[in-house]
Amino acid sequence: MGSKIAELLNKTATKIILAIVLGFIAGALALAVAGYDPGTSYSMMFTSIFSSPQNMIQVLILTMPNILTGLSVAFAFKTGLFNIGGEGQYIVGAIAAVMVGGVLNLPPVINVIVIVLVAFVAAGLYGALAGFLKAKFGIHEVITTIMLNWIALYLNNYLVSLPGIGVKNTEYSFPIKQSAWTNVLNGWKTSPHGQAYLSTHPALSTILLGTDINYGIIIAIVVAIAVSFLLYRTTFGYQIRAVGLNKDAAEAAGIRVKKSIVMTMFIAGGLSGLAGALQMTGTLPHALVTLANQPGYGFNGITVALMANSSPIGCIFTALLLSALQFGGSTIQMNLGAPSEVVNIMIGVIVFFVAVASMFTMISERIKRRRVKIAG
Amino acid sequence: MLVSILLAVSITLMYSAPLMFAGLGGVISENAGVVNIGIEGMMTIGAFFGAAVGYFSGNPWLGFLAGGLSGGLLALAHAVASISFRADQTISGVALNFIGPGLALFLSRKLFAGSAMTKPVEHPIPTIFGSYAAKSSNVLIKAANIEMTVPIVFICAFVLWFVLYKTSWGLRIRSVGENPAAADTLGINVYRIKYLAVFVSGVLSGFGGATMTLAVMNYFTQSTISGQGFIALAAVIFGKWKPHGTMAACLLFGFAQALVVLLGGSNSKIQIPSSLLSMLPYVLTLISLVLFVRHSSAPKADGIPYVKGH
């Protein structure tokens, strides 16, 4: 019985929950030191989400890219790669989606599928570039992906500044054609019939017209299930995990390690690119915007993946938690004047303690293995 | 001609100095066997404290020291995680890259009336010729009038090179990074050396950040540190983990940043879109890594946590 409790305490889940609790404590300390009541701030963060259906939908809209970039980081982790290039891959995905979606005019559903596939491949290749540099030259992917993030950001800004792409005197590019938007009841809500109906149904109207409610979150959940299947039910997934667990053993077993590194980064890049593409098809302004800073979803993905212990299904829930935190953070800034960056501190502390905890797990596993060896 | 060359050199040096401080920080940490991905975060917190303390005290040197100290304190968190708790050094470094900017912006909003930007520092770091250059009519002196942080970083580089290669302390640091078990059997306190190296690494990175806000710009904002920490890390690899090599690499990357300013000016002959120019330092970093990096020149035990008795 005692050993069972010890085992439970030793579980990764327990440690991650502990890390999250410590993150909340650190956030409370920062708030208290800055002169804000942590209790009021935290309760406002969470009650604000449930205060209106609009806010709940906002959180779900925010969750979509965070799930996908989380999957991107988690997938790369399985091969032992640290993909902090989600930012750049997201931007490349968005660029590809707008470039194709602003020109192409296919029938509704097919249009979206084509746009999303092109974005996946474009961002995948961008990710694969970092994988190639790692496999071929041994350059650490953390450095290459960071450089690629900034290159993508300036590429985005360059494109928006071009006369054929950017709309004159604005910070926007041309938008994706409406036939490729992934918003819920996209055609109906703007039709005369839909508008007449919505004018008499204010509750539905605030949701459909007041938010960017879109199908992205559903697609993200389906993708999470697909990634899980790919990792645990296919030979390719097995090879990837083998490389992540022990490169030399995988090589000896005939797995082409370098090829799996490039392939993994292709898929990881594609997943982040998918986030960018669906953000473009699903939310206003459906166009590229001049960026002063990184969009942030790629970095969110790191936290999402670490909190989920790289489980694809887990990413759905940790992305939801993170998005709720970030939404809540913006409300305390609006209502209490408390800096929303307290959320960044919390995230940092959570990641920090996950880093420490993951090591404990490895050590305990090593001890277990040794015991088995002695017993055997 | 001579004036424009001198001007290009001094702008290059101005942009190289923050990278050099951070690069030297990377050198000492990695030579002691600790990978420091968190340099970016340490630079950010250093940049903020440099600007904030410089603003409130009116003394740039106080700001500079505060920047270094804040970077060092943040680095201690990385030391605890990676040395004592044997955490994944990449992940704990990334955590610091969240905590550093988060804390900096949090404090900025608290101290500067909700703004994510500090007020401009009244007295930035003085230049080598100081007020003499302003009075002088000599254009050469005006062009060569670089900030004091530039000579300081060169002195730091020399000291670090001397310590690493000419003293027993340096031998200890390098042995800890190459073969900690052997160093341990020789009676070297591996943990203490690693802690010290990571702390100094943070101080230097903090200096780098403070240089950015006290000598390059005169305020702190969200985008003050945008990848410089990682460029510095690339410079460490490019410079083969040695102080002089890293300094040279930082000069190259600093030159790329200077080009952005020099070519971006409205009176330059060639007109290149600013967003393409801004890409240059990052593209150059990538290309130089591909062209010049050879495997296996990293300290052998770099990034591997040391477990006593294994």
Descriptive overview:
- The complex is a heterodimer of chains A (376) and B (310).
- With 376 residues, chain A is an all-alpha fold.
- Chain A has one domain.
- Helices cover 76% and strands 0% of the residues of chain A.
- Chain A has 17 helices and no strands.
- The longest helix of chain A has 34 residues.
- In chain B, 71% of the residues lie in helices and 0% in strands.
- Chain B is built from 13 helices and no strands.
- The longest helix of chain B is centred in the N-terminal third of the chain and has 30 residues.
- Chain B starts with a helix and ends in an 18-residue tail after the last helix.
- Classes of the chains: A mainly alpha (376), B mainly alpha (310).
Summarize the structure.
The complex is a heterodimer of chains A (376) and B (310). Chain A is mostly helical.
- The rounded distance between the terminal residues' Cα atoms of chain B is 62 Å
Rg of chain A: 22 Å
Structural class of chain B: mainly alpha
State the order of secondary-structure elements of chain B, H for helix, E for strand: HHHHHHHHHHHHH
Envelope shape of chain B: globular
Range of helix content of chain B: over 70%
Kindly state the percentage of residues in helix of chain A. Answer: over 70%
Instruction: Provide the structure class of chain A.
Output: mainly alpha
How many structural domains does the protein architecture of chain A include? 1
How do the helices and strands follow one another from N- to C-terminus of chain A?
A: HHHHHHHHHHHHHHHHH
Helical run tally of chain A: 17
